[in-house]
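User: Batch of two.

Assistant: Item 1 of 2:
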Amino acid sequence: MTQTVAQEFFLFLVIPGMGAGIGLLFDCYRLLLRRTRLGYFSIQLSDLFFWVLCAGPVFYVFFMITGGEVRFVHLLLLPAGIAVYLKFLSPYVREPLNFCFIKIGEGFYCLVQALRFCAQVLFFPFRLAVWGVNFALQFFCGLLRLIFLPVKFSLRWVWRWIRELWRNFRKP
């Protein structure tokens, strides 16, 4: 096997794989668009950015493996890889991707909340003291409610018993 035949064989494996990778990126892009709901102009700009982002690695691989020589067969293998991915793998990958994006979003939300809390503590140090006192008072009030709950229910039961006794006493 000469170097050119090895390159051709390698390209016949790599290019459909790159097509499948572009299909995976396209699934990610679709899910992100569905979650963010951008306007018309923003979608057009993000489409342009997506395809430029995908074209860069494809042309890099073509240039590094073949030295810039692109044949028509290579250009057909890339959409074939995308089509195979979208037809056979995409329905099974979309749901876990959606789950991952939701979890990543929740993680970013928690990170933003933690950074916001740290900024409040840093820039407004007395707010931490107020927050601590507020938390302690709420905890103490909840504890008192929990302690007096049996007393409340027993007093309610006694009151109902006395009221029923009074009603029976007033009947002629």
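Item 2 of 2:
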Amino acid sequence: MQNISEIDDLIKLISKLPGLGPKSAKRIVLKLINNREEITKPLAKTLAEVYKNISRCKICGVLKSSLIECNYKECKIIKKKYDQICVVENISDQWSIESSNIFRGYYHILGGTISSIGQKREDLLIDSLVERVKKDEISEVILATSATVEGQTTAYYIQDSLKSLDVKITKLAQGLPVGGEIETLDDGTLFSAFKNRSELNSNSG
């Protein structure tokens, strides 16, 4: 294969995507080259728009567009006011739970775990979670962190941060395997984990 810098750079970038290696990246690049008008041109336009407009909300952590309001409490898209917050580590966890139609309520995406390499507690949206619980009349915080050491360490820290508030704190229980990550679980396992979640405190009583 003839070395062309633009193509080589594109292959290297695509191979960094999850689940893709150099061979898969080369096939994708060839597909893009052979379908410039149908795929490459609109893809480039959409990527530029995503880069320009999409960011994480600094309050709840969900993805938001600069063109519309965040789908947090004040968002006009959500008509109903909820009294539950589901706390997850990352956006892919939120998407997995949303697609299963198990939970109806607010989400709070931390942006990682406390013990992640290079991840500091102040980098996570824990303080904003506490503020949301205080201001939004939240009755239950569901800790849907992964059953890894890092996920459980983060859950314990959040529980400690909320202990002075009058709110029920629960965590996903049966159905969530030790070491399991939320985004890898099937809908049946997620349903069991939510249905059988256990209470960590009794502050509300």
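The chain has two domains: 5-55, 63-199.
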